[in-house]
């Protein structure tokens, strides 16, 4: 920091805003809030005008299908959902349960200007709901990971969480990688400049890309450009993301978007990053006006933000097979890795208690990932559903074992903070997939750092083979 900026900061009294992650994450996903997955809330979805069917591409069972069907009412219907599914009562529940972080799944359409309205159909207005929720989370001191969960062009086939259920997967193309980088530039800028985003500590590039790496061409290069885009915005904001970082000082301008525009036309950044910054400028300019945050976006203070660098986040290397790229190769500055583990879909452990307990208690993912540079790691999605009908007693053990093992990493985010309670939802969904309900039933302890039995894994640990 130059003497000039230092003096200015002192004069204007800027505070050091600490936006880091908790030392140990005890968190939940805010699933089905700004990205609806109808399976978690079928009664509400049907009452909104949606449908439930076995193959989600065959009925109105995604945000895309709903928005295409109801162009005139979709925004109002979704606004009501955003207000009711996650609000102050839910923030109070998080605090009551001792949680310190949330992961927020988002679609690319939260940045509305990225949507090609001729062929793409999604609700509008989500950004305002996001700001409302972030403001409440900030007051509660809860850290946030913004998770790019549904990517432009659709990044995985026939999944409600991708926003559109289709086999026409177009994310892995230059056009859609570019749109995802623009999203990244906008979200990074907002994270550092919009006061509502103050507890945002991390952005995840892509949730659950296709597992077969041969079907995700360009993903490794995109990962590198994702990190470079985050760091480019931070460079322009003088946010230091690594030791020996050189300050960027544009004293000619006091306006962040003007600086971003100017610098994106120089050779400071690589072409994909420069193009993303260029296209992010008009979006930020109009968001500044729409959200009435002109002072934070254009103001003098924006160039002297005392924020910690964002933690860039990717699915861990173990998520993919078939010669995947290593996300560790993309790291510049703080980065973390995200592992997901679901037992109920099969392919993990045989459908009985013993096999499930043995598997979780001997899990070595943290170590195998660390050996490939994928550390720190957190478990960004998990729940209590096993592959069989579970007793209450088993769910308590299974909860303990998962928390003990995931607790050895940077921490965890349970999926999900809530699940609808209704006549049409299978009873097992809230019972094994809703954090609040699992605490209420006593499977999960009220204190997330505690367990019922710290020795729950003892009988299942496979002894190390003597050398
Ligand atoms: C800041 O620059 C943008 C262009 O990037 C412009 O639209 C805006 O009016 C400027 N605002 C101020 C306050 O100078």
From TrEMBL:
Record's keyword annotation contains Hydrolase: yes
Signal peptide: 1-19
InterPro entries, A to Z: GH (IPR017853), Glycosyl_hydrolase_5 (IPR050386)
Superkingdom, taxonomy of origin: Eukaryota
Keywords per UniProt: Glycosidase, Hydrolase, Signal
Family from the record: Belongs to the glycosyl hydrolase 5 (cellulase A) family.
Protein name in UniProt: Glycoside hydrolase family 5 protein
């Amino acid at each position: 920091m130059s003497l000039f900026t230092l003096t200015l900061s002192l004069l204007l009294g800027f505070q050091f805003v600490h936006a880091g992650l908790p030392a140990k994450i005890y968190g939940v996903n805010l699933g089905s809030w700004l990205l609806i997955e109808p399976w978690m809330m079928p009664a509400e979805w049907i009452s909104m005008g949606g449908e439930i069917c076995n193959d989600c591409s065959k009925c109105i069972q995604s945000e895309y299908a709903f928005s295409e069907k109801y162009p005139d009412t979709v925004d109002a219907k979704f606004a009501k959902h955003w207000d009711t599914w996650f609000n102050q009562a839910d923030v109070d529940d998080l605090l009551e349960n001792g949680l310190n972080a949330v992961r927020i799944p988002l679609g690319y359409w939260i940045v509305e200007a990225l949507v090609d309205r001729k062929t793409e159909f999604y609700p509008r207005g989500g950004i305002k709901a996001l700001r409302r929720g972030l403001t409440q989370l900030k007051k509660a001191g809860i850290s946030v990971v913004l998770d790019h969960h549904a990517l432009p062009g659709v990044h995985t086939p026939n999944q409600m969480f991708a926003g559109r259920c289709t086999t026409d997967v177009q994310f892995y193309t230059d056009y859609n990688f570019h749109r995802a980088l623009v999203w990244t530039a906008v979200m990074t800028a907002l994270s550092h400049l919009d006061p509502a985003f103050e507890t945002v500590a991390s952005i995840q590039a892509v949730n659950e890309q296709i597992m077969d790496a041969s079907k995700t061409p360009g993903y490794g290069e995109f990962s590198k450009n994702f990190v470079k885009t985050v760091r480019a915005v931070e460079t322009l904001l003088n946010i230091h993301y690594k030791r020996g970082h050189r300050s960027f000082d544009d004293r000619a301008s006091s306006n962040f978007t003007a600086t971003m525009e100017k610098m994106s036309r120089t050779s400071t950044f690589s072409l994909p990053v420069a193009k993303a910054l260029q296209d992010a400028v008009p979006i930020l300019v109009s968001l500044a006006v729409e959200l009435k945050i002109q002072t934070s976006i254009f103001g003098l203070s924006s160039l002297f933000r005392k924020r910690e660098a964002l933690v860039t986040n990717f699915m861990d290397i173990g998520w993919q097979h078939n010669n995947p790229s290593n996300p560790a190769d993309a790291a510049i500055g703080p980065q973390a890795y995200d592992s997901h583990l679901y037992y109920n879909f099969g392919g993990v452990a045989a459908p009985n208690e013993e096999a499930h307990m043995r598997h979780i208690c001997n899990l070595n993912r943290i170590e195998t990932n660390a050996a490939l540079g994928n550390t720190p790691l957190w478990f960004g999605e998990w729940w209590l559903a096993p592959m069989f009908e579970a007793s209450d007693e088993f769910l308590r053990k299974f909860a303990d074992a998962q928390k003990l093992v995931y607790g050895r990493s940077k921490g965890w985010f349970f999926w999900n903070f809530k699940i609808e309670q209704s006549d049409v939802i299978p009873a097992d969904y809230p019972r094994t997939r809703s954090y609040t309900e699992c605490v209420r039933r006593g499977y999960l302890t009220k204190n997330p750092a505690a367990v019922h039995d710290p020795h729950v894994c003892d009988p299942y640990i496979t002894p190390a083979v003597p050398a």
